[in-house]
Amino acid sequence: MIYAIDKPLGLSSHGAVVQIRRTLGQRQVGHAGTLDPLATGLLLVCSGPWTRAVPYLVGHSKEYLAWICLGGSTVTLDAEGPLLSAKAVPSPTREQAAAALQGQLGWQLQTPPAYSAVKSGGQTAHRAARSGKELELAPRRVEVLAAELVGLYSDLGAAERELPKELASQPRLPPALGRFPTLLVRYQVSSGTYVRVLAADLAARLGTTAHLGGLVRLRSGQVGLEQAQLLEDFHPERALSPAAALGMDTLQLSAAQAESLRRGLQVAASRSGVFLAYGPEGLIGIVQGDGYQLRPLRNWPISSE
Length: 305
Prior knowledge:
There is one protein chain. By secondary structure, the protein is an alpha+beta fold. The protein is built from eight helices and 19 strands. It has three domains: 81 residues, 2-Layer Sandwich (Pseudouridine synthase), CATH 3.30.2350.10; 159 residues, Pseudouridine synthase (2-Layer Sandwich), CATH 3.30.2350.10; 51 residues, Archaeosine Trna-guanine Transglycosylase, Chain: A, domain 4 (Roll). The chain is elongated and about 70 Å long.
């Protein structure tokens, strides 16, 4: 099944998966897109055969709320710290912030932060960084689809007091590292984008440094945070519609077509796109049509739901 979880503050994405494994009593559970421990919000989790859908969920665009604290830089680029430098800086005007955000839009090359889950040469970046090693991380092509200034605050405490009502279900922001002018920005970005890096880039455009004081994932592809359940109140029966979560239409196929697709063969069909295909015995898998034929992309065991 596919679940939408509102990941709590201070827990890693893997930690959330471990808790769901225990609740479900099965090991075949995985998530579709890492959230850092100091980030909260939407985490998509798949169980059983639906872990095969993870690659099709990971690639969706994401939407975040980011609290960016100007004037204080950290080695991790977020509130994990410690502070590398701290200086008093004036709060930018809304016009200055909006202009800097406008400059971030579009495709760009982004180098992942040293403290990240990216692997290089068989090593995980954050583990290497904590042991004093520096890995050479290849830049990746990412896209900032939207960048909107939501609020300007004197510091993170003031921003927290005006937290949007829809986020009030659980704590969202880690302890502040100091009193820094804080921007609240709504980003929509392509998969694989590090908002911590965007925060540092935005600060540089404003002539200063910054760290990410807090982050909430609001949306991943077709799924929004409003559809998520709290981890502490997780109910297995509250699964998402797979077709809706994946953003795919469904196809109902004959037994003969289902058998051919399960054997890895193509079948004639006048549909174009990527679909969840079902046969008389249940889900076949994910298929792709070119308007003439369907070919299997990923098959499911018989009787999977």
